[in-house]
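lol forgot to send this yesterday, sorry. struct tokens for the thing we talked abt
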């Protein structure tokens, strides 16, 4: 039986202001539907639910924009923002999104907001619970959210402020900060007897260690997370704010504003509704894609719909045992333990009903190709492909039409730039219109 962590009933987005101490004056408006800060002191579970729910509310949008800046998705609608991300034309300093920068601004703004709400919630718990806050599962949850918010920002942005109104730090330092936050969350979860929260934090820490090249630490954390662990971002069909927008905005039966990228179309088995495995030719159930001949909303492009999430209340994995096994395989590959790496990948394939990989003949380059595709298949539309292409230096190689604006600027940005909203409102960050996230070699 899977260890499935689902979000408790939460007020998605409803606590954006209510969880912040700085909003106390706003909460005094004579509106019986608003909470006061004192009310929230008596409803700490609601505060924790709100913090966690806000993270999940942003997660589906995070996946869409990282997918558009990878080889998972392309724009098939009429939205200039989607089109600019699809073609790598997003730039710093356009908060409206019309010129291409604003969508990722919104993603960072929301994740920074989640982090701020998590920090404020911890202060609230300490004020109300006193010493008991250090062993409260509520504290463990919001500390984990704080670390996960930093982890997601580090994966997709060049830099970000280290704290509310703080200085800008590069993604590497943000990963280190996430490790510290997730370590704290693990300690509180252990004290609170909440093993599930501790595993969620540990899974995030394993990923952060991997990104920093701390391979021994990443391996140890990954091995401590069991195969059957999974932590979901939960969605609901009850209201628009709670809908899975990956479904609502990009999926057959809903809006068709984005499609699986054209490079995969020839590999789609339209009988099995899945992309074919490149090594064995079998339909891969981890890569479900639906094509019925439907034309997307641009009136031109065939719409190859993701079919992994099909309903507005479809939940999305945030972290699970599959990813931990992939981390193990990558560490083994980096340690030249190629047989061990392939054995882990074959076990994942067997769990999906696929045949083993062909013999790699002890060739590290072949095993890398296996690893990269297995990560694509296992983590399809879970918000990781853009970062994989970035960290392995494969952005331009794997994404067609990688030009930035004019033909004289052929280098595609590899990560999103810091939000201009933060630079405008944070006196510690410079508003730099030249900012772009390019490969290190450029």
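and heres what i got for the seq, position by position
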């Amino acid at each position: 039986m899977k260890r499935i962590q689902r979000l408790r009933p939460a007020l998605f987005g409803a606590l954006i202001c209510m969880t912040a101490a700085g909003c106390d004056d706003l909460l005094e408006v004579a509106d019986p539907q608003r909470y006061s800060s004192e009310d929230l002191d008596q409803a700490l579970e609601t505060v924790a639910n709100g913090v966690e729910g806000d993270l999940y509310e942003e997660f589906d949008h995070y996946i869409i924009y990282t997918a558009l800046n990878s080889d998972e998705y392309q724009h098939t609608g009429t939205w200039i923002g989607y089109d600019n991300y699809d073609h790598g034309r997003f730039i710093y300093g356009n908060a409206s999104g019309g010129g291409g920068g604003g969508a990722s601004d919104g993603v960072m703004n929301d994740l920074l907001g989640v982090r701020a709400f998590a920090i404020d919630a911890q202060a609230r718990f300490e004020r109300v619970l006193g010493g008991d806050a250090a062993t409260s599962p509520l504290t463990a949850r919001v500390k984990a959210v704080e670390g996960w918010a930093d982890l997601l920002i580090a994966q997709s942005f060049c830099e970000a402020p280290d704290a509310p109104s703080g200085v800008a730090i590069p993604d590497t330092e943000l990963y280190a900060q996430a490790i510290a936050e997730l370590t704290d969350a693990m300690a509180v979860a252990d004290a609170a007897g909440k093993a599930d929260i501790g595993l969620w934090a540990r899974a995030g820490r394993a990923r952060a260690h991997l990104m920093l090249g701390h391979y021994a630490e990443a391996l140890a954390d990954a091995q401590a997370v069991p195969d059957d662990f999974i932590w979901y971002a939960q969605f609901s069909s009850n209201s628009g704010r709670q809908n899975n927008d990956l479904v609502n905005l990009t999926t057959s039966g809903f809006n068709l504003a984005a499609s699986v990228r054209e490079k995969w179309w020839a590999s789609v088995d339209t009988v099995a509704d899945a992309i074919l495995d490149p090594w064995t030719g079998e339909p891969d159930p981890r890569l479900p894609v639906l094509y019925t001949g439907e034309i997307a909303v641009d009136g031109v492009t065939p719409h190859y719909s993701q079919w992994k999430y099909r309903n507005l209340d479809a939940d999305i994995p945030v972290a699970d045992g599959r990813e931990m096994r992939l981390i193990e395989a990558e560490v083994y590959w980096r340690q030249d333990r190629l047989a061990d790496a392939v054995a882990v990948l074959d076990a994942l394939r067997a769990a999906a009903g696929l045949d083993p990989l062909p013999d790699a003949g002890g060739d590290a380059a072949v095993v890398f190709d296996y690893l990269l595709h297995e990560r694509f298949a296992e983590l399809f539309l879970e918000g990781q492909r853009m970062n994989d292409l970035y960290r392995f230096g494969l952005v331009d190689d794997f994404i067609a039409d990688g030009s930035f604006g004019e033909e004289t600027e052929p280098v595609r940005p590899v990560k999103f730039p810091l939000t201009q909203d933060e630079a405008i409102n944070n006196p510690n960050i410079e508003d730099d219109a030249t900012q772009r996230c390019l490969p290190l070699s450029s």
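Confidence is low (pLDDT under 50) at residues 1-33, 95-101, 402-409. anyway ping me if u want another try
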